[in-house]
């Protein structure tokens, strides 16, 4: 057995994102409206502090003021603010305008991410005219309104990051989301080439069925034409958009938003698109349209499509510029990271491939947050593998917040994607072409997972197959006397992510499929084990029979639990 000899520091990984966001500002600043939009963008629940207080006390805000008085209201407000911000439940909190009047509240806000929605007092007063004022007991007198604003303004400034709230609420929400998520870009460099891995700017959620011609200087351009596509390096180049067939409805939108682009949809979808036939058809399309090595191929889709796009980009005229836009969590945490490209052959995965680094990889927080639960589960399997291999914090995040992640909490999902991509990038830099054996550890869970995937074909997704394969690898690790407590805990996560158990192939077929594993050298099968988090080991001459017997025993135990 060989240990992984890799100097890795998970504390240098991308930052964690705060679990609670608080919006503050004077009456009329739009905290609730902006909060609702921000909740849509981040896919994180919104709590209105005043509404939560009304529900708790069984009285409306005007009733609380008239029956209990402002002092009572402020005391209850502080208690609830403290409770909601100290909770580990991720949320967006829209606070009342007077929350900054108590020093205790300022102290509470210092422990969470706080944004001050700032606008001139005259604008705020104008917004509150008409029926809106009836629900504002402190907005009945203009002079008092002005005085309260002047008194609170310095506290607002000191309590939160200032956001200009004079524009449309959609733009205010987008600016807050952009500030909160940040770009947090990092790179992967190998053989003199560099991939920049970055986060797409969030956009307001809204209808996408029509787009007018776009001004290249317009900062509000829709998500279907990211700011990055307006970069000078792309403006004079041909761009081929390779789009998964899931995005067929976007064709008309793209033709308006980026009229100079070529658009190509493979005939098949998912793993069925990873064939030499599809690759040849795409290469022919590129040649017929006169692309050259200075042009760009932008692949938007899941891991199968980015694998196909990467292989074609590497082969066409010995390589043209490549950008990957993974739209599944599986693609963002694994398939699009590291420069591996491939198509399938003879019923086995990734038999024809190449190493080729893209120029950029785009992590798209909005797309990832709105994925259906099964697709999130698939990506979390690969992220769980990465956490086990390298990063205790990533593993803990998935273990602690699995249900929130499966429900699509945007910032948590982005943190998982960033940490996973960063960890893989660091390893790939040390062993880009797998000459040192370091990248072998990324096969944790895949050896038997690929057996299941090859046996079942398109009926079984990669993520579900690897979830069970990872559980098998942990069980084999137990057979070698490794990581008993960790193995059982991680297997429970695998079981939750795997969903319905796939039927096991007959032993003879499983053994045959194991001989197709890409890690076989001189007839010897490598198998990745786990001693502890961050401590993988590679068994260089693994006997397939052990994996088959362990898989059978584990399957029976999982069925018993079900």
Q: Report the C-alpha radius of gyration, rounded.
A: 27 Å
What is the number of independent domains? 3
Give the number of helices. 22
Low-confidence regions: 206-224
Report the CATH topology name of the largest domain: Rossmann fold
Shape estimate: globular
Amino- and carboxy-terminal Cα gap: 34 Å
At a glance:
With 562 residues, the chain is of the alpha/beta class. It has helices at 31-42, 49-57, 61-68, 70-86, 103-109, 121-127, 142-159, 169-181, 232-235, 251-257, 276-288, 303-315, 329-335, 365-369, 373-389, 392-406, 410-430, 446-456, 462-479, 484-498, 507-514, 544-561; strands at 2-3, 20-24, 46-48, 91-94, 113-118, 161-164, 186-190, 193-199, 239-243, 262-264, 296-301, 321-326, 340-345, 348-355, 360-363, 525-532, 535-542. The radius of gyration is 27 Å and the shape is globular.
